[in-house]
Amino acid sequence: MKEISMRKIIVNLMGVMIGRAVFAGINPIGIAFFTAVYIDKKGRLAILISVLLGMATVYPVTEVVKYSIVMTVIAIIVILLEYSNKRLPIGAVAGVSGGVTMFMSIANGLLKVNAKDYILMGIAEGIAIFALTFIFRKGVEAIVFSTKGQALDNEQIISIAVILAAFIYGIPNVGVLDFSLTLTAALFSILLIGYKYGAGYGAIAGAACGIILALKDGQINQIGLMCMLGIIAGTFRELGRLFTIAVYSVGVFFLSDLYQNYKFDLNSLGALVSTAAIFLLMPKSLLLKIDLARDESQEDVFVKQNIQNIARGKLKDFSSSFHNLSDTFTSITEKKGKLSKKDKSELFDELTEQLCKDCTNCDTCWKNNFYETYQGAHHIMEEVDKNGTIAVSEVPVDFAGRCIQLERYVVEARRVLEVAKLNLAWNNRLAESREAIAGQLNEVANIIDDFSMDLYKTSDTSEGMQKRIIYQLKEYHIIVSRMAILEKRNNKQEIFMIARTEKGRCITTKEAAQLVGDAFGKRMRPADGCKNVLTKEFETFVFVEDADYKVFTGMAKMTKDGGRISGDNFSFLYPDSGMVVMTLADGMGTGETAFEESEYVVDLLEQFIEAGFRKESAINLINSILVLKAEEQSFSTIDMTVINLFTGVCDIIKIGASTTFIKRSKEVETINSNTLPVGVINHMDYETISRKLSDGDFVVMVTDGVIDCIPGEEKEQFLEEFISELRMNNPQEIANAVLNQALELNGWVPKDDMTVLAAGFWKKLN
Fold first, then answer.
1. Which position among 92, 349, 545, 578 has the lowest Cβ density within 10 Å, counted as fewest Cβ atoms?
2. What pLDDT, in 10s, does the model give residues 272-317?
3. Residue 686 sits in a domain of what CATH number?
4. Which residue, among 630, 686, 615, has the nearest Cα to 655 in the 3D structure?
5. Are 412 and 553 contained in the same domain?
6. Are residues 83 and 167 in the same domain?
7. Are 10 and 112 members of one domain?
8. Distance (Å, rounded) from C-alpha 540 to C-alpha 545?
9. What gap in Å lies between CA 361 and CA 356, rounded to an integer?
C-alpha cells in the first residue's frame, strides 16, 4: 500500500503541472486529468487541490474560481450518481465532466463581448474533456495500479505518453545554469519509454513530446527529431543502459545538426547531461524491459480453447460408444405376453416323443389313427395351457380309449407347460432388465453429451476488464497474481483468481466480491466452498455471478396414526448459485417400507443433481434402478420443482405426485398430472410444466395425504381457494396453515402421511 500511496503522490504532483497546461485560454487537459483521477474514490480531494494549485499559477483569480466551481460541481454530481449506482462507467463520468465544463464556459462567455467565440470555445472544451478523460484514464490506471514488470497494453502506453506530454507542456520555462527543466523532462520521457517498451512506443512518446515542445517554442522540426530519438532508444535497448545512453546522446548531437532550424545550445547540453545522469542512477527494477511483440495471453487462450475442443471431442466419442451399446441391448430385448404357436408345437413334439416313442400302443395311435390322436393330444395341451389342468373326463373319448398312459400324459402336459411358462416369465424379466440397462446406458450417453456442453469456455471478456478488476482490488489492499474469467453453458461468468492481502490485512470474500462486482459491472458473490477471508498468503478464490432472485422455504409434516416414521421425504437443494430444487417423494403405503422407498429416491436425486446431471436424466436413471430391484417392486412418487433464480422460470415435474399450487397475490394456479410412480415400467411418461414466477409469488407442494383429508369431491378447488385467502408472507407460516387446515377438516386425524412444502420467491434489491 505504501507503493500505491507513493504513486498517488506522483500523480498529484503531475496534476499540478498538468493544471498549468492552458491552451488558447482554456484548460480541457487539466479538467480531463482531474476527472480521470477522480474516478478512484481515494485521494479525490488531493487531486482537486493539486490541479487547482497548478491553475492558480497561470490563471487570473476569476478563471481559477470558475474552474474550482466546475470541479466542485463535477465532484458533487459524481458522488450523487454513485450513491444510487455503486460504480459509474467512465463514459458517464466523462460526460458529466464535459457537460458541466461546457455549461459553465458558455454561461461565462454569454457575459462577455465576443459571446459567439466564447460559446464555440466552451463547446470545444467540453468535447475535448470528454475525449481526453478516456485517454488519461488508461494511463492513470497503469501508473497507480500496475505491478513491476507488468506488460501494459497499447492504449495504456499511449495514454502514459500523452500524460507525460501534458506534464511537460505545463512545466514553466525555467533555465538556470544552462539547465532546461522542460527539455530534460522531454528527453528523459522519450528515453525511458523507448528503453522499456521498444522503438514503436519510443517514437510515439517522441511525437507527443515533440508536439508539446513545438507548441511551447515554435520549433516544428523538434517533432521529427524527438521521434527519431525514441526509435534510437528502443532499437539499442538490448545492449544495456550505458550503450543506449551513449548512442542516444550521439543521436541528439547528429540529429540536431540535420534539423538545421533546431538550435542545440548549452541549455540542450545541460538537459542531455541531466537526462543521462538520472537514467543511469535509476534503480534496475524501474527499468525492466518489457517485450510487447508477443501476446502471451492470446496464445494462452488459444491453447486452452484447443484443449477444450479436444476434450469435448473425446467425450463425444465416449457418448457415441454408449449410445451404440444401448442400441445393442435394445435390439436383443424381446418380451412375450404368452406362448406362441411355435412354442406350443415344440412342447407338443417334446411330450409325444418322450411318452409315445417307447409305448407298445404307439403304432395304433400314430400310424393307424394319426388324425384322431393328434386332435386329442392338441386338445389336452390347449386345455392345460388355458386352465392349468384337465380332467380325464374332458379328454376326447377316442383318444382316452386308445391311450394306455392317459393319466401320465395329462400330468406331463401340465408339468411341461408350467416349466415353459416359468421360463417365459424369466425371459421377460431378463428382457425388462436388458431394456432397463439399455435405458441407463442411453442416459449415461446423454449425461456425457451434456457434460461436454458444460465444459467451461474462456470468456470473451476483454483484457482491459481483467486489469480493471485487478486495479480495483489493489486499491483496497488485495494483490492478484493470476486471474481467469470463464463462461458457463448458461452464459454466466465465473472469476478465478489467486490473491492475497497486503501487510497482514484481512478482508472477507464477501467484501472482495462486492469490489469485483463494482469493477465487473455485475453482482458477484463468493462461490460455495470458497474461503471466507483473504489473508496475507496467496490462495485461490472463485467469484460467481449472483442471481437476481432469492427463495425462502418452509415445511410442515404429520405422520399417519402418530407414527414415528413418515413415508414422505423431501429435500431443498441448491446445486449452484442460480438454481433451487424442491423435491417431495411419497413412498407407497406408510411406515418404514414407504420411508425407505421415498428416502432412496430423494437421496439419489440429490446425488445426481449435485453431480450436474440434468433433471430428466436423473429421473430416468432412478426409474430404471427401481425397475431393476430384484425381489420386491419398489414404487415412489416424485414431485420436483426447479426454480431458476436468474430468469424466474419454474419447471414442475410430476410423476404420480399430488397437486402443486402457485400463489400470485389473490390468484392461485393448480397444477396436476396423471402419471404412474417411478419404478413401475421402464418407459415412464411425464411432462415438464414451466411457469414464470414474479416477485412475491409462492409455490406450495403437498402429498396426497393432505388432499385426502379434505372432504367432498372438489378437494383441490377447496385448497386452492384457501391458499388464495392467505395473507401471510412467510413460507413456513403458509406450510403450517395448509397442514393445519387439512387436519382440522378431518378431525385432526391424518388419513395418511402428510407433508407440505412452501417456497417464497422475491427479487433481490440492488
1. 349
2. 787 888 888 877 766 665 555 444 444 455 445 555 665 666 666 6
3. 3.60.40.10
4. 686
5. no
6. no
7. yes
8. 17
9. 8
